[in-house]
Amino acid sequence: MSYSVEIPLDDDGFLRRECPACERHFKWYNGSTADRPQDAIDPLHYTCPYCGELADGDSWWTTEQLEFATASVIDPIMEDVAADFNREQRSHRNDFLRLSTTPGRHDPPSALHEPSDLLAVASPCHPWEPVKIAEEWTEPLHCLICGAPYSVG
To answer: Rounded to an integer, what is the distance from CA 122 to the centroid of its chain?
Structure first.
């Protein structure tokens, strides 16, 4: 079984991310820009623009996104588990003992809203992969794709 959850983008098409190392929030662009080379490939690991640490592409979810995803799929998962259990019980007919289960229902999570905040910047080496960073950040940044340091402004 697979379950999908839609995580909102901001008005500019950016997705909020959280560094698994420094836990700072930033956003990366969730789309393709006109200047992306035809042969560009998405890396297996991305670099935090703040601290420069590398992590797998699936390691950047924010706490709020993970909580929202969990709350969104708990009922469908439990319904599938209950259906599997009930199907298994029916296949092992026993007149002495009959079991079945019905999952409880949870309130659906409040929808996530992604504000259009943070400052958009692009690295000189991979300008087709812009990020949004905290406006007050004054330290050098690291390219999301290759980790090369660069300064803004």
So the answer is: 21
